[in-house]
Amino acid sequence: MSKLHIAPNLSIPLEAVTQTFAILAKRGAGKTYTALVIVEEMLEAGLQVVVIDPVGVCWGLRASVDGKSAGLPIIVLGGDRGDVEIEATWGAAIADFIIQEKQSVVIDLSNFSNNEMVHLIADFAERLYQKNRTPLHLVLDEADSFAPQKPLPGEQRMLGAIDKIVRRGRARGLGVSLVSQRPAVINKNVLTQIEVLVALRTVSPQDRGAIENWIEVHGTQEQRNQLLNSLPSLSIGTAWVWSPGWLNIFQRVQVRQRRTFDSSATPKIGVALETPKVLAKVDLSALRQRFAATSTPHQVNRQGELERLKHLVVELERKLGEKYTAHPIFQDGEVERLESAIRSLKYAGDQMLKIAQDLHSALSHVSTSKVRQSSTHIITTSAKKTKKATVAGSSNSDDRYIVLSASQQRILDALAAFDSLGETDIARNNVAVFAGQSPKSSGFTNNLSRLRSQGLIEYPVGGYIALTDHGRILARPIASIESFAQLHTAWYNRLPVSQARILKALVERYPDAIDRQSLAELTGQSATSSGYTNNLGTLRSLGIIDYPKPRQVIATKLLFPDLENREVKVSRGN
């Protein structure tokens, strides 16, 4: 084989083994599939390949496409399908084995923590660069994990080792393929060094921007427009292959079908995963001999120890089951009913105390002939007085106790939250949002009806709800809202993500308005979509945004209540 056949209309020289590739695409567009087609071609041509697989999807190279016969003889280290279990401290030893034995290998890191993966790859890449002198192609799937744009503490050594291989590895026989669904977060010093760009479907503006940065250095404006304009609509497996220097090609291709088992395929609902019946045999004698010295007796006997521990866990669970039986003290809902009853008893006690005070006042009036007016309020509140309203069914407030459901309690709590801001008459929709209920649901309507019949809420005007004094007693204490920032966060947490983004953008610009088009762009939505229009309509119906002029949107004063008139001052700090 003198060429690597990537697509029906594209074959590339064997010298690709020491070249640098970037295979970029969104998830599911075929980037790993494309990379493994190239690996198949290299292995069939007798070239040495090492695949770094952090996901555990490349072992299928060992089986035929239908899993009924052998595939390619490549050793799999680590992972659930590995020939040998590996440790995070073996990075340099694995590199030595690959270099000295000239073996092609998949290094499966899917069972490693991030710290373990970073440690192994740093050791492996440093040793590979130091010792290798023959052609070898290194494939880095999810390359942004190994060459991040913003390395975390401890990742700098790994990034430096990968950067050195990409920049200078060719002189030592090393070629690299960077495979990623997030080119925007691959280190730019690394990405700009690649010779061949293989771009499949890419939608994200940030990721397309990373591709555009490479094009600005290597291509013309016409090529840029042709590639970038087509990226979002490319079908699965369709790719642009661009090599401005080495191959001097700019070509759109359909990547050929794999000849080995596609272990990277996404599982489908209701379809059982296929398992290959035959795997290609590989010679593991040198591998076992080398790593037997690396393994400790504990590592060698790990499987037996694991089985022993499993049996011990089963036995302990059996004994615990015999010895202890859980007996719940309260049944479902009883705790809430008890709490509600206690609050009602407190209210009844307050009433009795008030009656006693009124009787004392009356007796004092009789004995002294002095006119004395008794208070008509059960509780004095610092909030502004609610408008007078008739409370339907108020006779029910003399029941021995009132039992509230969890959803009814949340309504009282929501009203209390607004009450703490000096807002006593609250729009029905706002109450529903803060209570976690749908304002149009029959359940919410029924809850309001029940609370009103018990004398806990009232309707001061149409579409508005207010707490009664009795309702304030039964409202559970909640974290008070002490600043605009806390109020705004409470709203964000109770809205769908897309609506919360809109509200946040408007809050940040209050009291200024913003045009609808700019607002859509700021929040990552389409100004012409029905979803965006519906989001604005919902927020407006809640009374928290408004349209001061045509095509203009603004946050309302409901999000910035008059704090100066509150008896307890509230911090304006955000």
From TrEMBL:
Gene3D superfamilies: P-loop containing nucleotide triphosphate hydrolases. Keywords: ATP-binding, DNA-binding, Helicase, Hydrolase, Isomerase, Nucleotide-binding. Residues 156-241 form the Helicase HerA-like C-terminal domain. The keyword tRNA processing does not apply. It comes from the Bacteria. Pfam families: DUF87, HerA_C. Residues 15-56 form the Helicase HerA central domain. The keyword Phosphoprotein does not apply. Signal peptide: none annotated. GO terms for molecular function: ATP binding; DNA binding; helicase activity; hydrolase activity. This is DUF853 family protein. The lineage of its organism: Bacteria, Bacillati, Cyanobacteriota, Cyanophyceae, Nostocales.
